[in-house]
């Protein structure tokens, strides 16, 4: 039986991320093997989980993935763990329009997982009991088994609110966290600053864990997690059979500028025959040798645009790789990097790889946020015509064309809008949409062969030339 528990918030900003991280560290220090999961498409929070637990953070998203796939990924990734802690997204019942699919509540129902509700009590007292009661009654299928109070003003405040909640709702209050600036985690425009950039995280992890050790009933927390029933039965559709031998070598751009990857995407590529070779667009002057393909994920290239611009040797190598016709795939930050220029918010321009006729301009306000369903209309790079996948889009940048653009995708948003995405040049494909490959495992299984076929085609063309 998998011990599991969901940390949900009444709303965004309730403090659930800090509390989730503190719990992960506190239980890890007690010798438990803790597996962290994030509800929804967030890349940054899971990057912290590995620092706090020693295990890769994972995503569980019921808009992009069907219930059976989510159960399979949870079961696979929680194997060997003593305790799985799942951080919610936004407020407990908030999901995609119009039906709140993908909400934390939705995930709790599918996983049959108990919920701990984090509520911020700063500036209120008895009214919080009414809030908790409303959450309890809103959906009886969601098991709210405990409450953690955040932003507590002192012992008297805590005891008063605790008494009112337990008296009026029957839900136990597991603790109250006083506000401490020294344990807050810095943010920027896409959320938390990625863990790869934070040098003081180990020290901060210890402080957060110590705070929770003193203010949370950890024994009751574990008992609630252990009360989870067996997860519902499911049929495997993602990781079928045994892993395949390496078919192709794929260079993975991974450093402070490019860190947005679903670990399950990388696992899928490896499982079906890709050897993943990391490289740094910031520091490496040469691509790894004998690559068959390149994968450039999202991240913050605008923050490191000056460093990326100066690494002219690597940019030239990537340009030549693109021109060769081998497979290149890029998402969001990777799209920006493959363009001609990135302009930062302070209107400074930095030259990038230059294989796509675009300039991307950073804006101070969020430009796009939402789920996407992608329909491939032209065979290019990793995907074939009629492939269909799901993903999400989230960025502050705006794309400025320098000439006519070629698009491979027709895109349908969760709100019903229709658009285009998937810029391509030769066998290079770049999009704002971050795709989850487990949304269509059949597509993922064919990717290594597609990369291999592109290499063979390049060799054949070169021989004829």
Quick structural gist:
Helix content is 33%, strand content 28%.
What is the tally of helical segments?
A: 13
Largest sheet: 10 strands, mixed
Beta-strand percentage range: 25-35%
What is the helix fraction of residues, given as a range?
25-40%
Fold topology:
Elements (H helix, E strand, L loop, with lengths): L3 E6 L6 H14 L4 E6 L4 H10 L4 E3 L6 H12 L4 E9 L12 H8 L3 E6 L6 H12 L5 E9 L2 H15 L3 E6 L8 E2 L2 E2 L8 H15 L2 H9 L21 E6 L4 E3 L2 H9 L2 E6 L13 E4 L1 E2 L5 H6 L1 H13 L2 E5 L1 H6 L2 E3 L5 E3 L6 E5 L5 E9 L11 E8 L1 E5 L5 E7 L4 E8 L2 E4 L2 E3 L4 H24 L1
Parallel strand pairs: 1-4, 1-5, 2-3, 2-4, 5-6, 6-7, 10-12, 10-13, 13-15, 15-24, 16-18
Antiparallel strand pairs: 8-9, 11-14, 16-17, 18-21, 19-20, 19-22, 20-25, 22-23, 23-24
Written description of the protein model:
This protein has 465 residues and is of the alpha/beta class. It has 13 helices and 25 strands. The strands form five sheets. Strands 12-10-13-15-24-23-22-19-20-25 form a ten-stranded mixed beta sheet. It has a seven-stranded parallel beta sheet with strand order 3-2-4-1-5-6-7, sandwiched between helices. A hairpin with a 2-residue loop joins strand 8 and strand 9. Helix 1 crosses helix 7 and helix 5 runs parallel beside helix 6. The longest helix has 24 residues. It is elongated, with a radius of gyration of 23 Å. The mean pLDDT is 92.
